[in-house]
Each structure stands twice: as C-alpha cells, then as structure tokens.
Amino acid sequence: MEVNKPLQAVSAAGRGDGRVNVLEVIGNAGMGGMENYIKNFIAHLPANQFQVTCICPYESPFTSSLRQLGVEEIYITPVTDDPAWRSIQLTMEVARLHQTDVLHAHMPKAHILAGLAGCLVHKPVVATLHGMNVSSQELGITRAVGSHLMANCQEAYTQALAMGVPAERLGLVRNGVDTESFTPHNSGDELRKEINVPRGTPLIGFVGRLEYEKGADLFLRAVDQVHQVQPDAHFVIVGDGVMRNQLEAMCVHLRLDRNVHFVGWRADMVDIYPAFDFLAHTSRSDGTSLVLLEAMSCGCPTIGLAVGGVPEIIENEKTGFLAGAGDWEGIAFRIIQLLNQPERLESMKTDARDRVKQHFDLSANTRRIAESLRHIAFTGLNGQRHSNNSTMAQEIDGRVSFNNFKG
Predict the structure, then answer these.
(1) pLDDT (tens digit, 9 = 90+) per residue, 109-161?
(2) How far apart are CA 186 and CA 195, in angstroms?
(3) Using 50, 70 and 90 to split pLDDT, how confident is the model at 404?
(4) pLDDT for the residue 309
(5) Is the distance from CB of 174 to CB of 203 less than 8 angstroms?
(6) What share of the chain is helix, strand, coil (3-state, %, to 5)?
(7) pLDDT-based confidence at residue 400 (cuts at 50, 70, 90)
(8) Residue 218 near residue 280, CB atoms below 8 Å
(9) Is it the case that residue 390 has pLDDT exceeding 90?
C-alpha cells in the first residue's frame, strides 16, 4: 500500500458526535473543474456534521489545498481503470479504520475503486458525474455495485434515467459558486497591466484546460474572425495543457500572437474575471461549468456553445448568448455583436450575477448534497435503515428519498 502516513485506528468512542464519515475517492489531483468542485464542496460542508477523509492518486498542490481546508487524513494510492489489489485493500482498510459511512467517488476510475471497496466493506457508494454524459463504463459500475449517481446537469440526469438507472439511486444537484468571493467589485487592472491591455480596450477571456474537450482551438478560430472586424480587441487564454504549443503555433500562423495572451493557470481568478469584458466558453463537452458560474458571479457576461449543462446556466440573450455545438462562427458573431452594444453588455453584467445568486449558490447546493449523503449513509448499502449504521446519532425522516435531491 502506498500511503502518506501510517494507518491509525479511529476509536469508536470518538464517534459520539453524530457526524457522518465520508471517504472521498478522487480520480485525479491536478488542476481543473473537478478538483475545484471538490475543494468548494469540502470547504462548505458543515464540519460539525461531517468528517472527511480523502484518497488521491498522487501528491500535488491540490492535496496541499485539501489539507489547508482541514482535511487531516489524505491517503495516496494508484487510482486506475483496472485497480490493483493494493489500491482496493488500502481503500477497504481506510474505510474500516475511519469508520466510513459512505464513499463518494469522482471520475469513473475512482467509481470503480470505491464501488469494489464499498461492496467488500458493506458501505454505500455515491459517484458524482462531472460531465454531460453517462458513459457505458459508469453505467456498468453502478449496475454492478449498486451505487448511487449524482448528476450536476439535467442532460446527464435524464440520460442516466433513459439508460435504466433507478430513480431512487439518482440525484441532480447543480454545481455552485461562492458568490461572496467571486464578485464584480475587483477591478481586474492587475491582469490588464500584466499583458499591457489598457482599460477601455476590449478584452475577451477563455478559461480552461488546454485540451481538445475544452475547445480552445474553436476559441482561436472565432478570435481570427473577430480580429478581422475588430483588430483592436485583445484576448486572453487562462489555463494550460497538452495543446498549448499547438495553440501558440496556431496564433502565429493566423497572425494573432500580438492580440492573444497566454497566461497559464492562475490562483487569483477572483481578480481575473473582472478584467474581461466578457468570457467565451467553447467547450465541446461540459456539465455544469464552474468557469461559467465564476465568471457570471463576477458580473461577466458569457458566450457559450450549447452543450451539456451550458444552456442551463446561460440565459440566452439576457445573461449572455448561446451558439450551437461546435459553432465557432456563431461565437464570433456574438462577440462582435456584444462589442458593438456596450449598453446591452452592461445590463448583462447585472443579470449574470443575479442569475448565479438565485440558482447556483454554493452554500445552498452543498447543503443539498450533504443531505443526500447523510440520507444514503443512514439507509446503508441496500437502501434500508440499519441501527448499526455507525454515525447516525441524529434522526432523519424515513420518507426522504435520494431522488428528492434535485435542484
């Protein structure tokens, strides 16, 4: 077993506080929307009601950030599509020693590991779906081990139903954003100074991993078309990934390198979004995009491709615009349109923030997930109450169903 510290048994005497012990099994530990989701979730999970332990595939700045959030126990083991016995054994022993009530998995390979270990230690498993599709792999896992699925967009939820996932084992809770942190009050001037783009010069942003799925190449195709009409506009790409060299070469080929700025990953996104006049989201596949929510919470209108959960976020022609899947020309058209409608752009800024506060508040959505985890932990592996489901010191109404948690 590969662990970052010796395993120590947890005394049952220390379990009298009524908290639910959740084992988060995480399939990646890089920088991306899933990792940000987990950090936000843990940060807003009531500490007096839940105890969190994590399993990650490797040490990284992400695992350091989890410790800063107060997660004391983080175990390291390979998390793969075909898990080694040492990983299964570690997950089982961590679940036993920390008296885990429910295993919560992120990504299909983590779902496999959590599902196998959950069956062996007789504990329920919940897998959060972070994308717009339910893969055949994910479906096979949940049917094999009887796990629960938590979708974060309506498309994934209805697809799971259509594929035969029982409604009582399926929930829908959308992602949320901390509207107290992501606000329009920051100026964004630091980024503009860094890339030498003065206030008053149009600046359009793209944020995401530089991988095919996220569609940064589609963004650059749109930029090329916009540049021909509005040559003074500038564009910034926040993020990194395997396509960066290709994208930089594309900028040179299209003679956009003076107007497109690559700034890599940034930890100061609360200061980055306010620098944008608006954000273009050209992902080929997405669930409930945290990037869109963060930008809109900062009063930044958005233009996005209508895939997955994106149409559930952007209110077309009110908080931003939608274009069809893959329609980079539609993105370019909408960018040009907004650049020439400053009054409409200003009204969209207010509407964008209002929509996030009303429908995508992180605290409210975390409470919904916490309620479903508590209910599943209490009802146990087979969906029936067990008096020895360890941490359930507080009563939960027996009529509550996992399927009630749709928000």
Answers:
(1) 999 999 999 999 999 999 999 888 888 889 999 999 999 999 988 889 999 99
(2) 17
(3) very low
(4) 85
(5) no
(6) 45, 15, 40
(7) very low
(8) no
(9) no
CA 77 to chain centre: 22
User: Closest by alpha carbon to 301, among 202, 218, 194, 197?
Assistant: 202
pLDDT the model gives residue 381: 63
Q: What is the pTM assigned to this prediction?
A: 0.79
Measured CA to CA, the distance from residue 56 to residue 120 in angstroms comes to: 20
Both tokens of 88, joined, read: 């299964």
User: Which residues contact residue 70 at a Cβ distance below 8 angstroms, ignoring those fewer than 6 apart?
Assistant: 47
Contact 23, 103 (CB under 8 A): yes
User: In order of start, what are the domains of the chain with their CATH numbers?
Assistant: 12-176+361-404 (3.40.50.2000), 189-359 (3.40.50.2000)
The CA-atom distances, in angstroms, between 374 and each of 85, 105, 125, 389 are 29, 15, 12, 11
Q: How far apart are CA 3 and CA 58, in angstroms?
A: 10
The 10s digit of each residue's pLDDT in 111-121 is: 999 999 999 99
Nearby residues of 310 by Cβ (< 8 Å), 6 or more positions away: 281, 283, 286, 289, 292, 304, 322
Q: Which amino acid is at 169?
A: R
Question: In sequence order, which residues have a C-beta less than 8 Å from that of residue 5 and are 6 or more positions away?
Answer: 73, 75
Map tokens 């963060």 to a residue: 294
Q: What is the pLDDT of residue 133?
A: 82
For residue 379, give the H/E element and its range. helix 362-379
